[in-house]
Amino acid sequence: MNSKLNGRSDKRTDPLAAMLIVLIGGFLLLLFGIAVSISVGAVKISLDTVWQALVHFDPGQNQHLVVKDLRLPRALAGAVTGASFSVAGAVMQGMTRNPLADSGLLGLNAGAGLVLALCLALAPGLPYSQVLALSFAGAALGAGLVYGISSMARGGMTPLRLTVAGAAVSSLLLALSEGVALLFRIGQDLAFWYAGGLAGTQWMQVRWALPCAVAGLAAAVWYAKPLTLMSMGDEVATGLGQKTGRVRAVCTLAVLVLAGTAVSLAGPVAFIGLIIPHVARILVGTDYRFVIPCSAMIGSLLMVYADIAGRMVRPPYETPIGALIAIIGVPVFLIMARTEKKVF
Amino acid sequence: MNRAKRAAIVMAVIGVLILIALIFSLNSGQVRLSPSDVWQTLIGRGTAGEALILFDFRLPRIVISLLVGAGFAVSGCILQGTTRNALAEPGILGINAGAGLAVILYISFYPVQTVAPVYLLPAIALIGAGLTAAAIYLLAYQKQGDVSPSRLLIVGIAVAAGISAAMLVLTIRLDPAQYQFVSIWLAGSIWGSNWKFVTALLPWIVILIPAAFMKARVLNMFALGDLQATGLGTRVRKERIGLLAMAVGLAGACVAVGGGIAFVGLIGPHLARRLVGPQHQHALPASALIGALLLIVADTIARIALKSGEIPTGVVVAVIGAPYFLFLLARAKN
């Protein structure tokens, strides 16, 4: 898939060492990013106060309340969604051997989006736990359609076919969401959410989403070794004694939970899941035991910093994260589509 | 039966179907008019109220659906012919999105109700569509092998995703009234139920569709492959750019008035080829007719399904079109 790039990096560096550097360096950058994310916004809060609010919380102080109730859940949600989107993308790329796999491009986000539009329209007061479960179901609906259709094609599932089916399914599901939005006059609310953003994230959401994301990430890490074998082709994996059916089932479930969680928190942000795993592979090679943790870390970083950038581009307005990431994502996608000669 | 005769029969049948749909469409809507009422009004014997509904609201909307449907379908037929890709379509290729972005940019700076912009909208959409198409073409271009069809598709999808993100940012900043207008338009509503829009759209259709028909032979050459076509004396690159420009022109004008209606440009030509064969002399006019029929039916369904008329035609078309597209994809060979 990426033999040229990976071949080079495999020879030069030890992937384990590279991963440790990425994880440790990334963790420090992430802590710094979260701190900055908490301190910037409509009310500037000094890093000192942020620290005070975290270690000596005083409910009498307004700034402490802002930190605890608004900024902290938002920063954590950024880290969680970034990791979830990226790992979902990495697992999908490994499982389908499609370098262009991404929850946004393959219909998962649009499926979750449709279900959430229906929730907003028909049952506005639904508890978040149920919204989350429904968004998993929505992601499954989108993924099922795309995979089902592209695997029915004569000559099997090619990356091109998968991507085209993804575009068609996404536009169908989006059209349905638009219909729902216009019918119930919830258009602009939905547009805010569709544009992707973490404004207004509440603790209650993080409390539900975090365990789901952690479960999905754990499953991905747990199954990273068989996934690596599967990324070499089904014959190789079966030949080496892998039960590909079970691996595929667990991995699919992990992808649905990860994408569903991320979409329900941040909206259908595309391209993170596409780009981050490629960056991770450039750094640590093709072994998914290294690719998945690195993808999670780099994805978190991207999302947390993009969220900060979105608030700083044009204050007091927030620029949607989805748009910011698309600005980075589209050119990267195009470069990949140009360089992946084997695929097209 | 020879092809020409078969094509003539098929087109006559579609023509009759369009006529039936037309009558049905004239009768349905918020105020129901019986066929005899419609007839009386058409020959000038109806009440003032009926005349108003028919001539000022229903008829322009119907005419626009017909024109937009034909325009999108012919645009799709040209795109499929020149790229030799059965899945090419202005919506999937991102041309609609480019036109849409230009229109949104314009609307967010100028109010839409004034007269002058109505005529400007197709031109603006055209600029957006043209720039997007040029960008996609250049990005997909390679020195050896010119433009590979699948690369064009992939690049189009990526560019469309990027433009959609930009549009979302712009629509969020609009005030609620403008937003409602833009969102309905984006979803593909025949919102221009007004003769002004007909006159704004008509020149593009009247010039570009016959121009495309005249290029039918060239399109047939493309089907043989670039090498063969060159061997037979076709200036492939020049003709391809000319034809792509026509397709973009049609799609741009249609998006400006009809909004982002996807899939018509895909389904129209497919059904046409299935019914009349791959020769473009027959496939192009048949596409135009099928596109017109499809859109008038979708628009009528949209009006009947919800009396308030808030389900945009584009949503109906997508609900019908996407499954068909996916069906084609599932059956497609490499």
From TrEMBL, chain A:
PANTHER family: FERRIC ENTEROBACTIN TRANSPORT SYSTEM PERMEASE PROTEIN, IRON(3+)-HYDROXAMATE IMPORT SYSTEM PERMEASE PROTEIN FHUB. It is found in: Cell membrane. It is a multi-pass membrane protein. Belongs to the binding-protein-dependent transport system permease family. FecCD subfamily. The chain crosses the membrane at residues 20-43, 104-125, 131-150, 162-186, 206-224, 250-276, 288-308, 320-337. GO terms for biological process: siderophore-iron import into cell. The keyword Transmembrane applies. This is Iron ABC transporter permease. SUPFAM superfamilies: ABC transporter involved in vitamin B12 uptake, BtuC. One of its GO terms (molecular function) is transmembrane transporter activity. The keyword Nucleotide-binding does not apply. Keywords: Cell membrane, Membrane, Transmembrane, Transmembrane helix, Transport. InterPro entries: ABC_BtuC-like, ABC_transptr_permease_BtuC. It comes from the Bacteria. GO terms for cellular component: plasma membrane.
TrEMBL record, chain B:
One of its GO terms (biological process) is siderophore-iron import into cell. The chain crosses the membrane at residues 7-26, 62-79, 91-112, 118-140, 152-174, 194-213, 243-267, 287-306, 313-332. InterPro entries: ABC_BtuC-like, ABC_transptr_permease_BtuC. GO terms for molecular function: transmembrane transporter activity. The keyword Transmembrane helix applies. Belongs to the binding-protein-dependent transport system permease family. FecCD subfamily. This is Iron ABC transporter permease. It comes from Cohnella candidum.
